[in-house]
Design a protein that fits this description.
α4 crosses α45 and α50 crosses α52. This protein is 55% helix and 6% strand. The protein is α/β, with parallel strands linked by helices and 1614 residues long.
């Protein structure tokens, strides 16, 4: 890559060859500009062809070779032109249009079907949530009114307006039933108890801030007032009114929030601009209206009390005072949600901004200390509600001193009330004939359960972005519905049955007279007016619920200010408690990682790096994803899978970028990414002094797979430009420019320069991205870099993984939801063919369904697999994580823990440092699993010891882990300890199971003999692990596994016979049914993976092999630290070498297996059967071959002498230096003399070994198989980084035989210790169980417990519970049940996650219908915009003229030749002809079609009055885009054309771009600017280029403040 030179000296521009396509140094590219550029390229191409012809003529007639001319010697400036020549030359081969395609795996083929299922799932889930939120809120309100109605007697005008109502047992309803009071107080107190328990759990198991006593005192005062006011409100005020009036009075409890909204009307922490002050004044006017209506409503209620009682006695005065005061005291608890939060100078600082008021500072401190303050406050609220308020009320309003208090506490004393009622307090508990005495408590329980369900489902609705329809609407409608339902109860048109209990609701006295309503209208109009004012003003106060944020899966503390609801006023508390803004969390996010120090340089001036990429759309909190795939010996199919995943991600990111830049729609899920492949051992073997080496065949295979993968993803022939070749200190780098404008970089690691293996590749990219690139982002402060680090993610991938962009989006969602999450993994699906893959599919399914789900619910996932996991940059940068991960193994256990399972060790380090690892079941990824028995065993040989070593490390450090990690409790440590014990004893358990199977199948065999028979293969496996080679062990394990699988069939038959004979009178049958039920139920809850359960039969047959033999093999080979997989694979040959050589290799392999051929053609033994057969049947001609070689050498030496003479005559010998070139390509000295294969000649050894500067001109960079891409060099800063980093952390480990012997000896010793302990524990366990079982049998089941059922003619032991076997069965059953329950909770969260990430237009359409808006105001969302953008940016048949269409005359009378399949074939060939001209990038395609889109939706056409406008727009779109757009995108374009707001936005952007393009065409100087892409740092205007380099300058763009968040502002775009 050559750096671009700007004609303006004062402009700071960061130029990179592989940046984003959407932004160049000349601004955005328009279709007209692209056409001009294509014409210029065609002219330059003609000039190049003329130049080439001239060169050929000069060479033909003996002219001087231009290769050796001084003006071109050592220069590589024509690299790009040469690549273009070859690229277009290959493109002109019209006959070469037949391709090898690559089909998608399951992840792509079933995507459309499952997307439809997900949409249906969200629709159904929204309907269910709406229904249950609505029903439970109505039940909660209704049960609450029932309890308040029965607290005070029915006497008085308020309770019975004009005597029109009749209460049950009205003659006896003259006293206060204490049980109803207690049921009401329990309902009110329940949320306080739940909140206290929640905060106490956090206090015990998590780290919190120190207690602030000032904040505690203020909180106690505020909540005391609230509790006293709420207690008086529910015990005195509401019981004094009839049920309907009580419901309406509950809407007047938002006085304080209404007043605070006048003072703090804004919903943002940002400074209010001048343009927004008018809008702010309007908001204050509306809020003042709401406050006035609230006060007016309270005044009307006071007036109603005055006129309803009809006298100025003490009761009316007391009640009027309480009606005035109680709503204000009740509403004071929600003050926090309506006050703007103060800004602190730093996260941990207690210093505030000077503009912050006292309330604003108090709000921030309340949120910071909520846990410890909440514990004391909720305890105090329980005391005030249960003790203080009742004693205060019943002490003041009691006739005979403390008799009312004694009656309240069930002291069998009757108390007489005064002022508030004329009744008495008694404990009667008589609610009807045969009615239960605790009937009021049943009503209270129904209230509590309905409130909890309503709150939980309302929270789920907010998480899935369905707040308006599934939360706000049903809650708002609950009050009118309750009023209507109570009216129906009055008229007995509806009823509620409680068995024999009296219905605690009144009815009309005169049921048949409909004019009864007119008897109360003279006074009840006040109630109606007061209720209407209260309801209207309450909706104004809580209008923020109709404009929620767009963040999915938002945490509960960011949804609601207080953790739970108000037990008395559920619907009001939900609406008032819903947080108005979450910016306060984004700005001052408090969590236990706030004190962790990210090592960020303080001095920005010393860390400026112009090579750092920073796009114009990227902000500090924009997710930046580095996809890091590690490769080694992957096959062609495996490489294609991961490349297809990368190309899909590139297409998705490009569409999201175009959506914001061109359509102006802000995408909340926008991200940026780079794809990196770290290739281990990428070069041919060479010595330190050997400079003539090339990349290996696997790298060349990767290069060949690029175009195949791109064509498969884009469904057309894609020719990706050759990679830019960059020499690096660790080897080399190949950099591709993807169609979407993103970069794919392959880092070629030379194991002679840098350490190889996966862990060291991970260390390499962690330090490169986090310690070099992130640290050197220019013009960023320390706090900005911290935010960038928190939003920088590393996606760890294997070289064969297949995934969709949606899977990555779901992982990022989980990271956004919880900042303490350091890593997140998805659901891994093994793919391949054969029984071993089927077994792994069931094994992976069970482990993910149950084990990972249980770990995620109870604590943390212990392992995030390296094949598909997302890591947070700031978590990796923390102490004891990334730095400790670089530790080389020094102790024997280090080789097992560090290198055999590096992904698990990295997760262990993160857990020990306090970060959480989560499992996201909705994020799917596919990876190739071992298909052979040997490869599978070798893979698990690495995994099993590493798993046990890391878990033991975590358990041994449990004190520090539980102290630092808030998500790992001591109970979780106990759970993992038990699982570890079970894992260790699993082989012994399987051994006993096989022993029981033998005894059951062959009763004639004595138990001791059966155990001896079973011991023989196990002992044989143990012995072989110590004395035999690995291949012998694996062969033995395969044979024994086959025998064990046959034995398991016997076990299965025996179990079925026992189940048929004993039925449920067998513990084994019950346990088996339970296990099968858990597996089938889990499969039903995972419909995408249901068919995995069908492989459970194979899993059952493989239990002895995989649970016993595999464990023995893993521990017996603990000293083997080799990788075990992909160590002997050979890269696929190039296409021209495929057929015959591959067939020869297959024949040779079969002969090798039969013993008649070997790798070298000879045997290591002097006499062998193979050599004998070769001598007889296949005589060797090696002697003749050697003679021919010697003869060729002699002839070549003569030719060398003649060539040396000719060269010396034609050119000075000094011209043969290390940069000497032949036909435009530098060659080594040896190959410049030989036409064919390099020969070794001592005469030229010194010249061949001449040192080369491998950072400028390495030999491998001239390999033709790497294609003729440009050559570029690293910046000085990056070279310095690698030169300092590699020697410190990644210097290749020098082989030392003494150290190797010592390490091997230590590993052997470790193996012996572990195996001895493992075998002893299992042997003791087996002997103990066996002896106790024999004792039990010999003593006639003396140790057994008989079951209540009997089994006739059953085997001994049936119908009994054996304590030993039952103990283990019960323990395993309890663990499985616990995992199943955790899976249910995790599955619900997964459904919520899927629903949250699924976007549907049904909600928007329904909202438009509710608002009464027509289709003209319909706005398209992100989902519709992305679909449209993806269609407009793809290469289509209509984009390029077909070559075939020019030479073909179709006639309608001609019969169609061949079937439809033949037509499709010719269409494909025609498309490849068109693509032969060189495909456009996605950005160019979209820019061209965006111009058409602007023309369609903005140009005015003559309208036909007889046809709808929608149809006319559709015809214009169809005529312009032909068959490009689908019907959904067609509807989206129609919506754009009908929506004036979005239409103007597109027109404005297109106009500005066109004007800038015309201005640029008028200034020819801009044509000289290099067309390489630039990324500009937008956070500092000093780095902006001159105004003419922007399509639109940010300083010139008018700042349009849109209402909502659907549109990107101008400063975001440019």
């Amino acid at each position: 890559m050559e750096g671009s030179r700007w004609p303006y000296k004062d402009i700071v521009v960061f130029v990179a060859d592989s940046g984003k396509r959407f932004f160049t140094t000349e601004g955005l590219t328009l279709p007209e500009e692209e056409e001009n550029k294509e014409e210029e390229e065609n002219e330059r191409e003609k000039d190049k062809e003329t130049t080439l012809m001239d060169r050929e003529k000069r060479n033909k007639y003996g002219m001087k070779n231009p290769t050796f001319s001084e003006e071109e010697d050592g220069e590589n400036n024509d690299g790009n032109h040469k690549h273009q020549e070859d690229h277009k030359a290959s493109a002109r081969r019209q006959w070469d249009v037949f391709q090898v395609t690559s089909d998608d795996n399951v992840s792509g083929s079933e995507l459309a079907c499952w997307n439809t299922c997900f949409t249906i799932n969200k629709v159904v889930l929204c309907i269910i949530i709406f229904f249950f939120v609505f029903v439970t809120s109505v039940i909660s309100k209704l049960t609450f009114i029932m309890m308040t109605t029965n607290v005070l007697p029915s006497t008085g005008g308020l309770k019975n307006p004009n005597g029109t109502l009749s209460y049950f047992k009205e003659s006896a309803f003259t006293s206060v039933e204490v049980t109803w009071i207690w049921s009401l107080l329990i309902a009110v107190t329940a949320p306080y108890v739940f909140t206290f328990l929640k905060y106490f759990w956090i206090l015990v198991f998590k780290k919190t801030r120190k207690l602030n006593y000032t904040v505690l005192f203020i909180a106690l005062c505020i909540e005391s007032l609230h509790c006293i006011g709420l207690g008086t409100f529910v015990l005195v005020v509401l019981p004094s009114f009839d049920p309907i009036s009580a419901v309406m009075l509950c809407m007047s409890i938002s006085v304080v929030p209404a007043f605070l909204k006048i003072v703090y009307p804004e919903r943002t922490l940002k400074e209010i601009e001048e343009s927004e002050k008018d809008r702010l004044c309007g908001a204050r006017i509306v809020n003042s209206l709401a406050f006035t209506c609230q006060l007016g409503s309270i005044i009307l209620w006071i007036y109603y009390v005055y006129i309803a009682i009809g006298s100025r006695n003490s009761q009316s005065i007391a009640l009027m005072v309480l009606v005035a005061i109680c709503p204000i005291l009740v509403s004071i608890t929600w003050w926090e949600n309506f006050v703007k939060q103060a800004k602190s100078k730093s996260r941990a600082s207690s210093d505030f901004d000077d503009k912050s008021s006292w309330l604003m500072r108090l709000k921030l401190n309340m949120r910071r200390h909520r846990v410890k303050v909440g514990i004391f406050v909720n305890l105090w609220k329980i005391v005030v509600t249960i003790i203080v308020t009742p004693c205060l009320l019943f002490g003041i309003f009691c006739e005979n001193k403390d008799s009312c208090i004694k009656a309240f506490y069930f002291q069998n004393v009757k108390g007489e009330l005064r002022y508030i009622s004329n009744g008495s307090m008694i404990d009667n508990r008589h609610f009807g004939e045969e009615c239960i005495s605790y009937f009021p408590f049943m009503i209270s329980l129904a209230n509590i359960l309905s409130s909890i369900i309503c709150f939980k489902l309302a929270k789920a609705a907010c998480k899935i972005l369905a707040q308006k329809l599934c939360f706000a609407l049903p809650v708002v409608l609950s009050t009118p519905v309750v009023i209507g339902f109570i009216l129906s109860l009055y008229g007995q048109t509806a009823g509620i049955s409680f068995g024999q209990c009296n219905l605690p609701m009144p009815i009309w006295k005169d049921e048949e007279d409909p004019t009864v309503l007119f008897d109360i209208i003279d006074t009840y109009w006040v109630v109606i007016a007061a209720g209407a004012l209260g309801y209207f003003s309450f909706l104004l106060v809580t209008n923020h619920i109709w404009s929620p944020g767009k963040e999915r899966l938002i945490a509960t503390d960011r949804l609601f200010v207080q953790p739970l609801f108000n037990g008395a006023l559920l619907d009001q508390s939900l609406l008032l408690n819903r947080r108005r803004t979450d910016e306060e969390f984004k700005k001052t996010q408090e969590h236990n990682q706030a004190d962790k120090k990210v090592p960020i340089p303080e001095n920005d001036e010393e860390n400026k790096n112009p090579d750092i990429d920073w796009s114009i759309l990227r902000k500090d909190d924009t997710p930046m994803i580095y996809m890091c795939a590690t490769m080694w010996h992957e096959s062609e199919n495996e490489m294609i899978q991961i490349l297809k995943s990368i190309f899909r991600q590139d297409e998705d990111q490009c569409a999201r970028r175009h959506l914001q830049m061109y359509l102006g729609i802000k995408d909340p899920d926008y991200y940026e990414f780079e794809a990196h492949i770290f290739f281990d051992d990428a070069f041919q073997a060479h010595g330190d002094d050997d400079y003539e080496y090339l990349v290996n065949d696997f790298v060349k295979l990767l290069i060949r797979c690029i175009d195949i993968a791109a064509s498969a993803v884009h469904n057309t022939v894609m020719l990706i430009p050759p990679p830019v070749k960059i020499p690096t200190p660790y080897g080399g780098r190949l950099e591709w420019k993807l169609p979407g404008g993103n970069k794919l970089i392959a880092h070629l690691k030379d194991k002679a320069k840098i350490r190889h293996r996966k862990r060291w590749s991970q260390v390499m990219y962690m330090y490169y991205f986090l310690a070099h690139k992130l640290m050197n982002i220019p013009m960023k402060s320390k706090s900005q870099r911290r935010i960038i680090a928190e939003n920088t993610f590393l996606l760890a991938l294997d070289g064969d993984v297949d995934f969709q962009p949606k899977a990555v989006e779901l992982l990022v969602d989980r990271m956004k939801k919880n900042p303490t999450v350091g890593a997140a993994c998805g659901r891994i699906h093994p793919i391949g063919s054969g029984p071993m893959v089927w077994y792994q599919q069931f094994e992976y399914a069970i482990s993910h369904w149950l084990q990972k789900a249980a770990e995620n619910i109870m604590g943390c996932v212990l392992c995030s697999p390296g094949c598909f996991s997302l890591f947070r940059g700031s978590s990796l940068m923390d102490d004891n994580v990334m730095r400790r991960y670089t530790t080389p193994p020094t102790e024997p256990q280090h080789y097992v823990q560090y290198d055999q399972g590096e992904d698990r060790w990295l997760c262990t380090l993160m857990l020990q440092q306090g970060y959480k690892v989560e499992y996201v079941a909705a994020s799917d990824a596919l990876t190739y699993a071992p298909e052979g028995f040997y490869e599978f065993y070798n893979q698990r040989r690495r995994w099993s010891p590493s798993t046990m070593a890391n878990i033991m490390d975590l358990l041994m450090d449990w004190k520090n882990v539980t102290r630092k990690n808030e998500d790992i409790s001591k109970l979780y440590i106990l759970y993992q300890t038990f699982l570890m014990i079970c894992s260790i004893l699993t082989p012994g358990t399987i051994f006993l199971m096989i022993l029981g199977a033998i005894t059951m199948a062959f009763p004639s065999i004595p138990p001791f003999a059966a155990m001896t028979v079973n011991l023989i293969p196990v002992i044989g496996m143990v012995i072989l692990c110590f004395v035999a080679k690995a291949n012998v062990q694996l062969a033995y394990a395969a044979i024994v596994s086959t025998i064990y699988s046959l034995l398991m069939m016997v076990v299965l038959v025996g179990l079925l016979v026992e189940a048929a004979g004993a039925g449920l009178c067998s513990v084994t049958t019950i346990f088996l049914l339970f296990v099968a039920g858990v597996f089938v139920s889990s499969a039903l809850l995972h419909p995408q993976e249901f068919f995995c359960v069908l492989h459970g039969f194979l899993y059952f047959l493989s239990i002895p092999s995989m649970s016993m033999l595999l464990m023995i093999y893993s521990l017996g080979n603990l000293h083997v630290v080799s990788w075990g997989t992909r160590e002997t694979k050979v890269a696929a040959p190039p296409p021209q070498q495929g057929g015959q050589q591959a067939q020869q290799n297959k024949v040779h392999n079969w002969l090798s297996k039969l013993g008649v051929a070997d790798s070298g053609g000879t045997s290591d033994y002097t006499f062998s059967c193979g050599n004998l057969l070769r001598c007889v049947c296949c005589p060797n001609t090696s002697t003749q071959t050697e003679d021919m070689r010697f003869r060729a050498i002699l002839e070549r030496l003569d030719d060398i002498e003649s060539r040396m003479t000719e060269v010396n005559r034609s050119r000075n010998p000094s011209q043969f230096d290390e940069g000497s070139v032949m036909n435009g390509e530098p060659l080594p000295f040896s190959q410049s003399l030989f036409d064919t294969v390099e020969r070794f000649n001592p005469a030229f050894l010194e010249q061949k070994m001449q040192r080369r500067d491998e950072l400028k001109d390495p030999f491998w960079i001239h390999d033709k198989d790497l294609k003729d891409g440009a050559k570029d060099f690293l910046s000085g800063d990056e070279i310095q980084f690698w030169k300092e980093f590699i020697p410190k952390y990644l210097k290749p480990l020098e082989g030392n035989k003494e150290d190797e012997k010592r390490v091997h000896k230590d590993l052997i010793e470790l193996r012996n210790k572990v195996c001895l302990a493992f075998l002893l524990m299992n042997a003791l366990f087996v002997i103990l169980v066996y002896v106790l079982t024999e004792v039990n049998v010999s003593t006639s089941q003396s140790l057994s417990i008989p079951l209540p059922c009997t089994v006739d003619n059953g085997r001994p032991g049936q119908g009994y519970i054996e304590p030993i076997s039952f103990a283990f069965t019960a323990i395993f059953g309890i663990m499985l049940l616990l995992q199943f329950l955790c899976m249910l909770f995790h599955r619900f969260s997964t459904f919520v996650h899927i629903a949250a990430s699924t976007k549907i237009r049904l909600k928007a359409n329904l909202i438009n219908r509710v608002r009464g808006t027509d289709t003209e105001s319909k706005e398209i969302g992100v989902e519709e915009g992305l679909k449209l953008v993806k269609e407009l940016q793809t290469q289509d048949n209509s984009d390029t003229m077909s070559v075939i269409s020019l030479n073909t005359n179709d006639s309608d009378d001609l019969e169609e030749p061949g079937p439809k399949r033949g037509k499709d074939l010719w269409k494909k060939i025609a498309k490849r002809h068109r693509m032969g001209n060189g495909g456009n990038s996605l950005s160019r395609n979209f820019a061209r079609n965006f111009n058409k889109l602007n023309m369609v939706i903005t140009e005015e056409h003559e309208s036909d009055m007889n046809r709808p406008q929608e149809y006319q727009i559709q015809e214009r779109v169809s005529s312009v885009f032909k068959n490009r757009t689908k019907w959904k995108s067609l509807a989206t374009i129609v919506s754009l054309a009908q929506n004036q707001r979005q239409k103007d936005e597109i027109k404005r952007r297109a106009t500005l771009l066109k004007a800038k393009n015309e201005e640029k065409n008028e200034n020819p100087q801009k044509k000289t600017i290099d067309e390489k892409k630039a990324r500009i740092c937008t956070d500092n205007q000093s780095e902006w280029p001159a105004e003419d380099t922007y399509a639109v300058n940010p300083t010139e763009t008018e700042k349009k403040q849109e209402s909502g968040e659907d549109y990107a502002n101008s400063d975001v775009l440019f």
